[in-house]
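A brief tutorial aside. Many learners find it easier to grasp structure tokens once they have seen a single protein encoded end to end. The record that follows does exactly this for RpiR family transcriptional regulator. Read the sequence first, then the structure, and try to relate runs of similar tokens to stretches of the chain.
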Amino acid sequence: MSDLTPKSLSELKETIKREHPNLSKRLRQVAEFVIDSPSDVAFGTVAVLSEQAGVHPSTWVRFANSFGFSGFTEMQKLFQQNLMEESPNYQDRIRMARDALGTNDSDQSPYRLLKRFSDANVLALQHLAEIISTEELERAIDVLANAHAAHIVGVRRAFVVASYFAYALRHIDRKAYLVDGVGGMYKEQASTLDENDVLIAVSFHPYAEETQVVAKAAAEKGVPLIVITDNQISPLASIATVSFVVKEAEIDSFRSLSSSLVLAQALSIGLAHELEKREQLPLKS
């Protein structure tokens, strides 16, 4: 291990985030798996992890080497050390909840499904409160408060969150425009953004190209960008003014939107409080 090799998991994640655009396609697959499933990496074998990430076993070794480690085992120690030092993460808690419930996969009654979804969402919301910092929230609200107008983009699954954001902002008398791409005119709608506006982009894996086009157009014009996404190495995170990484509940490959909607609600109501506070401040002579 050289002096430049990451000494902790947080350092490794920051390095991965920085180097992600320069990695090959297969190494990016490993990078995304590493960020999403650190507990699996901590105790998994190369053979099992390769199957889960959809890559050849040698790719894990190349990935470790590319970040200065002599091999996979040396890199894996960072994940094991982190797991011992920190409280169980979201995925670990999901597993513990399943064990406690004694989930019977053959039981797919409506009530059982409701119980599984509600329990998973409770854990996801608890995790949201733990990972979103006060500084991030305050910075996002400040950006929103200073903007002349908010433009919101999100397609497919993310459209639900984007449309709610537009609805909530309009209800606190803010100019809010949903970039819906009617007629395929995402670029044309993005061209209306002004540097005094703000763009809110909501995008989850596999990160819709339409949302990326609008976000990149905004960034090129110097428009502040608030992102809600599901991974630190999302293509939008690197160009965001403020980036919120949200881990949603997932049951049988069905992903919820509860945490993202709660975050959108908190930002909207927080903005309303901030604007009210500013109106009450005495004018400086």
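Self-check: The chain has three domains: 9-85, 90-130, 133-280. If you spotted this yourself, you are ready for the next section.
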